Amino acid sequence: MKEAFIKELEDVPYYCLTADNWTDSSNQSYIGITIHYVNNSAMTGRVLGCFPLYENHTSEYLMKSIQNIFDDFKIKNDKVTAMITDGAPNIKKAGIDLLGKDKHLVCIAHVASHLLPDALNNFKEFNTIINKVKAIVTQKKRSIPASDKLKEMQLKDGKTEGTILKLKLDVPTRWTTKIEMLERYILLEPYIYNAINKCEKPLNLLTREEISIVKDILPIMEPIKTVITEISGDDYPTCSLIIPIINCMKQKICSTVSTTEVGELFKTKLQTAMANRFKNIEMCSLLAVSTLLDPRFKKIHFKDPCAVSSALARIRKEIETMKPVDPKPRPTAVNTVNSNSI
Q1: Could you read off the pLDDT of 193-224 as tens digits, one per residue?
Q2: Which of 77, 148, 202, 237 sits a CA distance of 20 to 30 A from 62?
Q3: Same domain membership, residue 69 and residue 29
Q4: Residue 50 sits in the same domain as residue 76
Q5: pLDDT digits (tens, 9 = 90+) for 6-41
Q6: Is 30 helix (H, G, I), strand (E, B) or coil?
């Protein structure tokens, strides 16, 4: 199978790859590599594998490890259009040293996942509320009577077995679960008090003011969840989406009206985080060129004229260096006439 896959890659003109470090439960480190390309007009993605790492994760060691994987699968560096990694300095430098700055991209979903932690940093007013919700959800999940009561009340309100909702718990390694936890809590809030009464351990429930704050902040959080979900797709191209969807996220959050002091402060902190995380995104050549060439977007979502000018210059340069394709000769009137008709 490996030989057949390598043969398939030989016929692919270009491809992009992702690289990510992770550690298993026994503390063994790995680097995972995936490859993405168009095959017979269809988006195709393959996992090259998860390869163990045995040395300190220096950029030099990671670069050599990735190059060894490339060599093993006969992946040619000049056919790689981009390599996507997270923002860790070591793997970022490894990608740049291996392929060059113009062929390296930081995962934008990973960058967007840092927006909430940035905004919540040293934000005691809202972190206290989040921790209360997390404690309630955790305790409820440990209590069978509380879970049964929550289910029973929803059934009485006309829900079916297939539409009953459960509380969700924030999982730090999953980027949107904090938002989903708060959303689900608000949806089930009318049932929470009666369900939690079934728990053996008394819990500190949210006050009306705290519920109002969560309801106020959720619409400000929602665009982040949308962005992460949309640009994490693996069955459609996402590169040309980045600049438009990030700028739309900024506009949506900026235009959201907050009705509480805590909500307004959160909005301000989030806007600062977005400005810091995405300040030079339009100057990324790969993203800018992809957006300009996408007929859905072109120049519409750009804010920086210099970024557009720079991307257009690169497109012109690429066109000038392209080899012209010899057109097929058109048949003339003479050679299309049948000799029998003369």
Answers
A1: 888 877 777 778 899 999 999 999 999 999 99
A2: 237
A3: yes
A4: yes
A5: 998 998 999 999 999 888 888 899 999 999 999 888
A6: strand
Residues 14 and 35 placed together within one structural domain of the fold: yes
Task: Determine the pLDDT at residue 341.
Answer: 42
253 part of a folded domain: no
Q: What is the largest CA-CA distance in the chain?
A: 104
d(CA 155, CA 163): 9
Cα 152 to chain centroid, rounded: 37
Six-digit token string for 296: 């859905």
Q: Tell me, what amino acid is at 258?
A: S
If asked whether residues 170 and 231 sit together in one domain, one would say yes
Where in the sequence is the domain holding 316, given as residue range(s)? 282-321
> Could you report the per-residue pLDDT of 101-144, keeping only the tens digit for each?
999 999 999 999 999 999 999 999 999 999 999 999 998 888 88
Q: Which residues contact 120 (CB under 8 A, 6 or more apart)?
A: 126, 127, 130, 269
Q: Is the dihedral of CA 10, 15, 20, 24 positive or negative?
A: negative
Burial status of residue 222 (CB atoms within 10 A of its CB: 0-12, 13-18, 19 or more): middle
18: domain CATH number is 3.30.420.40
Q: Partners of 20 in the beta sheet? A: 32
Residues 6+ apart with CB under 8 A from 13: 79
pLDDT, tens digit (0-9, with 9 covering 90-100), for 282-305: 999 999 999 999 999 999 999 999
